[in-house]
């Protein structure tokens, strides 16, 4: 496995280039993935457009501006919280993201942990020098051995924090949970709990939403489908919130 080491005054990162997958499954579920289908949505006809209220466009613009202002205000608040929390961060952290290896999975919802880890790495100069960001090179369902190897290789005394996707939360929702709490069907977390039964760690769960259907094939298709650019931007807008939560864990 080829590795590239990038060092800066504030953070040391190791990025795996084309990691060799370990045996396992790409998805939490054990069934085969069905072919995805998208419903075609026809645009409104010209006749329908002529009948629309001419004031509707202005109303939509006003609502869009209000939503944009609220989003900017929320982002500024997150940045302020992150900056204050970082000033009190002292404990070393080993931050490990979960996902599946290879380009076919790189931007899927199941790889939200890896996606957030990469976004954090892009902010490396702002983070404490005793924080390490790593990514597993195994398939999701066998994350436990991969995490154990990284702990042995890195600082075993650092506080372990796992970044992973969360099907039970809305897109972009950030939730912190203790490592020993229920995996809620997430086989990556189950694997870590089985591999490291006595290890205390924290989880930062990144919401990716959930399909309306609870059918297992539908869920599998959903988590293994690519995220749209708008969805990726939602995650990018949550980086400061994740940094703030990491800083709190670094204080405990």
TrEMBL record:
Biased composition (Polar residues): 1-12
Ranges for region Disordered: 1-53
Gene Ontology molecular function terms on file: peptidyl-tRNA hydrolase activity; tRNA binding
Keyword tRNA-binding listed: yes
Domain of life: Eukaryota
Keywords: Hydrolase, RNA-binding, tRNA-binding
Pfam families noted in UniProt: Pept_tRNA_hydro
UniProt-listed Enzyme Commission number(s): 3.1.1.29
Alphabetized InterPro entries for the sequence: Pept_tRNA_hydro (IPR001328), Pept_tRNA_hydro_CS (IPR018171), Pept_tRNA_hydro_sf (IPR036416)
Similarity section: Belongs to the PTH family.
Record-given protein name: peptidyl-tRNA hydrolase
Origin species: Microthyrium microscopicum
């Amino acid at each position: 496995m080829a590795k590239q080491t990038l060092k800066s005054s504030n953070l040391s990162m190791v990025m795996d280039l084309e990691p060799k997958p370990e045996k396992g499954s790409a998805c939490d579920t054990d069934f085969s993935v069905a072919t995805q289908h998208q419903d075609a949505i026809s645009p409104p006809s010209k006749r329908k457009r002529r009948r629309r209220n001419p004031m509707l466009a202005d109303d939509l613009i006003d609502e869009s501006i209000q939503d944009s202002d609220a989003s900017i205000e929320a982002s500024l608040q997150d940045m302020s919280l992150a900056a204050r929390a970082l000033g009190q961060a002292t404990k070393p952290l080993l931050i490990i993201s979960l996902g599946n290896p290879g380009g076919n999975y790189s931007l899927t919802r199941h790889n939200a942990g890896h996606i957030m880890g990469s976004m954090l790495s892009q902010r490396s100069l702002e983070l404490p020098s005793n924080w390490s960001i790593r990514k597993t090179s195994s398939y999701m369902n066998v994350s436990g051995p991969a995490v154990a190897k990284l702990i042995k290789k890195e600082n075993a005394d650092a506080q372990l924090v796992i970044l992973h996707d969360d099907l039970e939360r809305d897109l972009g929702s950030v939730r912190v949970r203790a490592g020993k709490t229920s995996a809620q069907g997430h086989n990556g977390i189950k694997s870590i709990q089985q591999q490291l039964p006595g290890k205390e760690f924290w989880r930062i769960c990144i919401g990716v939403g959930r399909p309306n259907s609870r059918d297992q094939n539908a869920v599998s298709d959903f988590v293994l489908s690519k995220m749209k650019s708008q969805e990726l931007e939602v995650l990018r807008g949550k980086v400061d919130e994740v940094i703030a939560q990491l800083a709190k864990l670094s204080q405990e």
